[in-house]
Amino acid sequence: MLQWHGGDEMDLKSLNAFVVIAETGSISLAAGRLNIVQPALSRQIARLEGDLGVTLFRRHGRGVELTADGQRILDHARVVLRDLAALRDEAARRNFPAGEVAFGTPTTVAEVLIAPVIESCARQWPEVKLRAVTGYSGHVQGWLQSGTLDLGVIYDTGKALAGIRTSPLLVENLFLVEPPDAPARDTATLEEAAALRLILPNPVHGLRILIDMVAARQGIAIAPVVETDALAAQIDLVRRGFGATILPRVSVFRDLREGRLRATPLERPGITRTLMLATPDDRPLSGATRAVAAEIRAEVTRLAATGLWPHVALPGDADGDMPKWHI
User: Fold this and answer.
1) How far is Cα 41 from Cα 34, in angstroms, rounded to an integer?
2) d(Cα 87, Cα 78) in Å, to the nearest integer?
3) What does the alpha-carbon distance between residue 112 and residue 253 come to, in Å, rounded to a whole number?
4) How far apart are CA 214 and CA 210, in angstroms?
5) Which of the residues 102, 109, 219, 287 could staple to 131 if both were Cys, CB 3.0 to 4.6 A apart?
6) Among candidate residues 220, 88, 201, the one with its CA nearest the CA of residue 138
7) Which CATH superfamily is domain 99-171+273-326 in?
């Protein structure tokens, strides 16, 4: 086992010198590349070998070659120096974000959120390249855990998520969504909704799991006439008068504005779910990722303030209450 015999700090110049010598196979060539005299470079390596307690190089007539210990340390040294370079680059670009950011959102919020975020980011940070994907909240969660995404918007399931750090965006209300000629009412109960021809996602879908959980607590049977995970088909069937569904209002805001659908708040019990901003927890966030995350939060706040996204609470609301489920 290799042990560190030096003080509290490692000499990064010596570590960099070690990598350059390993790459050139020559102390004299490395000295020229580093613009340092050869005896001083040899002293740096001797000091590093003393601190590590191992021999890093074997000398021969043509130069030097790595020992087995040196080869193992080389891999670690490259990682340390690469991360340090990334840290310095990140600090230099903190006020000028740049780079690619892949982010994902659930299909239920994609239409209202993706375009404004891309437009605003392009205007503020032209060096940031965005790649946006949509899918079910569970898919977005999986893409975050696999490292495919840098940033995601997901729904809280009430369970800890391995490999993901989260913070709440808002708690949204669910609505009974019906054709425009449905009877007008101020509110609707879940029992009234269950008596309609419901078009809902399949039982494994997060929204359906929530609806079924609330219904079971109330002793209400949920028996949809159609089960589909295709959000567009779900909404189109309601437009055609085939039945009704349960969704956040933001998912059908265009249809509501143009009079193609009617949305009624669910009460007794009311049902809400928490929208979360999520990032992988196995790597630091780049400046570009932080900038996009801040813009997503700002856009959600704007949508909530305009009434387009009816909500129970936002982070920083006076009551400070961000419930995971509101039943």
Assistant:
1) 9
2) 14
3) 8
4) 6
5) 102
6) 201
7) Periplasmic binding protein-like II (3.40.190.10)
CA dihedral 230, 235, 240, 242 (to 10 degrees): 70
Closest CA to 130 of 147, 150, 110, 144: 150
3-state secondary structure of 1: coil
| CATH (residue range 12-92) | 1.10.10.10
Give the chain's count of helices (H) and strands (E): 11, 13
User: 95 exposed, middle or buried (CB, 10 Å; 0-12, 13-18, 19+)?
Assistant: exposed
Q: Compute how many other C-beta atoms are within 10 angstroms of the C-beta atom of residue 191.
A: 14
Asked if 182 and 262 touch (Cβ cutoff 8 Å), the reply is: yes
Which class is 172-270 in CATH?
A: alpha beta
Low-confidence ranges of the chain (pLDDT < 70): 1-10, 89-95, 311-312, 316-327
Q: For 188-238, what is each residue's pLDDT tens digit?
A: 999 999 999 999 999 988 889 899 999 999 999 999 999 998 899 999 999
pLDDT tens digits for 70-107? Answer: 999 998 888 888 888 777 766 665 667 888 999 999 98
Domain ranges of the chain: 12-92, 99-171+273-326, 172-270
